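Your task
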Amino acid sequence: MTFLRKHWYDFAGVLAIVVLVILWIYHSQLTDYQLLMWLSLVSLFFHQLEEYRIVGTFPGMVNRTLFKSNQPDRYPLNTNTALVINIVVGWVAYFIAAIAGEKVIWLGIATILISFGNVLAHTLVFNIRGKTIYNAGMATSLLLFVPCIFFFFKIIYEGNLVSITDYLIGIPLGVVFNYFGVIKLINWLSDKNTTYIFDNRNLLPADRKRQDVF
C-alpha cells in the first residue's frame, strides 16, 4: 500500500494513455455521449497527474493555502486520504459513468459537477487564497475539464438524453461528491500524527525542509 500511496497518480498517467489508445481504436463504435464520458475519465487522470506529479505541489497548496496548516506535509490532507479521494471516489465514479453510458446520465451529471468544482477551486479559490495566478491542477482544469463540461451539456441537450429525474439525482449527488467525498473526507481522515506523509516535492517551495535527492 505504501507504494500505491506514492504512485497511484503515476498509474493514472499510464491509464490515461491506455484509454486514449483504446478510444482511438474503437471510437467509431461509441456514441458521442459514451466517447465524452471516457474522455472525461482521461481528463481526470491527467488532472491528477498534474496535481501530484508533473507540478506536484497540490497537496502542500491545499494544506497550507486552504487549511492554513502548520504541518503541510501531512495535515489535514495526507497520502492515504489522497489515495481514497482520488481512486475510491474519483476513479470509480468516472469509470462507472463511462462504462454505463446513457443508462446513468445522472451519474454523468454528478461527475461533471466534480469537474466543475475543480475548475472553480483551481481558477478562483486557490488563486485567491494563495494570491497566485497558477496552481497545480489549473492547466488541466481549463484545458480538459472545461471542454468536457461544455460538450457534456451540448450532447445531452441536442440528443434529448436528459430527464428531470437525472437532474434531481445527479445534481445533489454531485454536491455530495464535492463536499463529503472531498472536503469532509479530508477532515474525517486527518491525523496530525499520521505516518502518511507527502514528499518534499509535493509541498510549496517555501515549506520544503530539505533538498530532495531523487
Helices lie at 2-26, 32-54, 58-66, 79-100, 105-130, 138-158, 164-188. The first helix runs from residue 2 to 26. The chain is about 70% helix and 0% strand.
